Amino acid sequence: MTEEKLMEVARKYRENAYAPYSKFKVGAAVLAGSGRVYGGCNIENSSYSLGNCAERTAIFKAVSEGENELEALAVVADTDGPCAPCGACRQVIAEFGIPRIIMGNMKGEVRIATLEELLPFAFSAEELT
Ligand code: THU
């Protein structure tokens, strides 16, 4: 699956964003080792801190379906430059070792980063031992 196709899925899922408070709609899509793609959007709550980001929605969907290898993640929002994942999502992206992160915006601008570029010096399970 090409980066463009994954971004297309992320854009489609952005339409499902539930963001009545921030009005900031985000879409994401994860490509799994099985070849399947899982889309996600941000889902907010009147109790603000309970909201979930689009990236984590997509990742949790994939993992909950039994996917144990995630190959790429696309994220898109109506931002000036390509939309970068928040810090919490970077930590979750690192947990599942997603090596390729494709960031985009509604103008069609795209930036691709590796996991190491996105979250250098990441905290990991090795720190726990
Ligand atoms: N948001 C995401 O979905 N992904 C990010 O990486 C950044 C922020 C959502 C959370 C909230 O619903 C809205 O964007 C505004 O912060």
Question: Would you write up a description of this structure?
Answer:
The chain has 129 residues and is of the alpha+beta class. It has a single domain (3-122), classed as Cytidine Deaminase, domain 2, CATH 3.40.140.10. The protein contains four helices and five strands; from the N terminus they run H-E-E-H-E-H-E-E-H. The chain has a five-stranded mixed β-sheet. Strand 4 and strand 5 (110-114) form a beta hairpin. The radius of gyration is 14 Å and the shape is globular. The termini are far apart. Bound molecules: tetrahydrodeoxyuridine. Tetrahydrodeoxyuridine binds at residues 19, 22, 24, 26, 42, 44, 51, 53-55, 85-86, 89.
Chart the SSEs and their pairings.
Layout: H1 3-14, E1 26-32, E2 37-41, H2 54-64, E3 70-77, H3 87-95, E4 100-105, E5 110-114, H4 115-118
Parallel strand pairs: 3-4
Antiparallel strand pairs: 1-2, 1-3, 4-5
The structure holds tetrahydrodeoxyuridine (THU).
Tetrahydrodeoxyuridine (THU) binds at residues 19, 22, 24, 26, 42, 44, 51, 53-55, 85-86, 89.
Task: Provide a short characterization of the protein structure.
It contains 4 helices and 5 strands; from the N terminus they run H-E-E-H-E-H-E-E-H.
Q: How far is the first residue's CA from the last residue's CA?
A: 37 Å
How would you sum up the major sheet? 5 strands, mixed
- The helix content, as a percent range, equals 25-40%
Shape descriptor: globular
Strand order of the largest sheet: 2-1-3-4-5
User: How many strand units?
Assistant: 5
What is the arithmetic mean of pLDDT?
97
How many domains comprise the coordinates? 1
CATH classification class: Alpha Beta
CATH H-level superfamily: Cytidine Deaminase, domain 2
Element order, helices and strands?
HEEHEHEEH
CATH topology: Cytidine Deaminase, domain 2
User: Any low-confidence stretches, pLDDT <50, length ≥5?
Assistant: none
CATH architecture: 3-Layer(aba) Sandwich
Q: What is the beta-strand fraction? A: 15-25%
Count of helix runs:
4
What assembly state would you assign to the polypeptide chains in this entry?
A: single chain
Bound molecules: tetrahydrodeoxyuridine
Radius of gyration: 14 Å
Specify the structural class.
alpha+beta
